[in-house]
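[Help] Beginner question about ligand-bound structures

Sorry if this is basic. My supervisor gave me a protein sequence and a SMILES string for zinc ion and asked me to "get the holo structure". I don't really know what that means in practice or what format the answer should be in. Inputs are pasted below exactly as I got them.
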Amino acid sequence: MSRLKVPIFYYHSIGNQGPETLPSREFRLHLELIRDRGFTPVTFSELLTLPLDAEGDYVVLSFDDGLLDNYENAAPMLDEFGYKATFFVIPGFDDVVRWVNPKTGQWSDSEKSGFTLPFPSMNRQHRRQLHDAGMEIGCHTMNHPKLNDIPRERLANEIRQPKSLLEDQLGSDVRTFCYPKGRYNKAVLEEVATAGYLGACTTMPAYYDWKTQKLECGRFLVEDHRLFGKILEWAAPDHPWTQPLCTALRVPLKLKNTLF
Ligand SMILES: [Zn+2]
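Answer (accepted):
No worries, everyone starts somewhere. Holo just means with the ligand present. The predicted complex, written as structure tokens, is below.
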């Protein structure tokens, strides 16, 4: 029987400033809910290798964009709870500060008018320390482009090249990938498969189960801890609210993807 049904959550900034960060105290509430409900956090690549009839309740926590506050604020809390997570990083951004516009909540990869909140990136030393502490480092491209928008000949630069670079730096396989802004098409999927990734994450809300295509795993962007708790609760197999929940969460996401 295939009973495995796992929520994968994703975050960006933790404990920083402005509208686009999740306060550390809220993140702690998520970790407490995971502990109190008896879920086991696994990395994304561990999830992909679990048997479909695995016993137990699992959850995956993932972080996009390789922001320095992931290392400074999220990792110590994860460590305190003894939890593992997956960090999807952007090695081309090692020396790049990203900026948020506090009025609109939009992100920019360069400094420009109205974008006043700085978000520095992790570098190879930070990634190495996370990896050595048992966290998974996954790849989120070299430069964070919308992959469905770039010429096919550039795909290898964004999908294969950062994999090799990170593997050299970490001395270990990099097995998972994440599409910037959830954008991909058939050519992107082919390149991700050829590069040898075991699985990849999108931004579409969905649980991971026996039907999931491993290169198109859905995730939940949920920062309200009450909804976070519900998504854990509804991970019970065949819970009647699963599909309505995922459908409802897609509406604001589609709107956001259209605007930005
Ligand atoms: Zn991203």
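A couple of things worth pointing out: Residues 242-259 form the longest helix (18 residues). The chain has a mean pLDDT of 93. Feel free to follow up in the thread.
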